[in-house]
Amino acid sequence: MRSSVPSLVDLCVQLAIDNIRFLGDVGVTEFHLLDRILSHCTPDQLMHIENCTEDRDLSPVTDKLWKKFFKLQFGADSMNFVVEKMKQKNVNFSWRRLYKAKLQEREEATEKSLARIKKRYEEENAKKQSRQVQVCMKVPPSSKRSFYGGFSADSMYDTKSSLMKKARKEFVNCREVKNLASMKTMVHRNNRLV
């Protein structure tokens, strides 16, 4: 059996596919070749290539790719909904614009929900702070008199102090406080990333 030798065009297309992450302006490359090459792009790579290519509209090739990315990212139901809306209103938008708009809408919704969660945790934390037992550092004057059963005032305050220490220790080690602490660190981490 003889294997067929790939043509020079096929070799060039394969080389472009292998190095697609380095592509920028595609110049006057024919659409049928671009169709073979750009179908291997990620959304970011395709966006970069379209932004770098000047004075040429690549939408005849890229529009179907953006539609595919829209379907993969947001689901077939969302894509069908957009198609129906465009048919109802008798308008047509490029799938690249629709993809970018939907991506931005999703990011804004995520930011709003994070802000809402952060606000609720702050409100809950403030509520817990207001209900929290506060340590009083002022020691009442001691009395030399003994109480019934031989207890002095000093021994009574020592008992209260050890009870407070135990209560404080249990509070710090409870699951709810640990969950709040981990949530705060997650919110701070997310705020730093944004």
Automatic annotation (TrEMBL):
Keywords: Coiled coil. The keyword Coiled coil applies. One of its GO terms (biological process) is transcription elongation by RNA polymerase II. The keyword Coiled coil applies. GO terms for cellular component: elongin complex. The lineage of its organism: Eukaryota, Viridiplantae, Streptophyta, Embryophyta, Tracheophyta. Pfam families: Elongin_A (PF06881). InterPro entries: RNA_pol_II_trans_fac_SIII_A. It comes from the Eukaryota. This is Elongin-A. Residues 100-127 form a coiled coil.
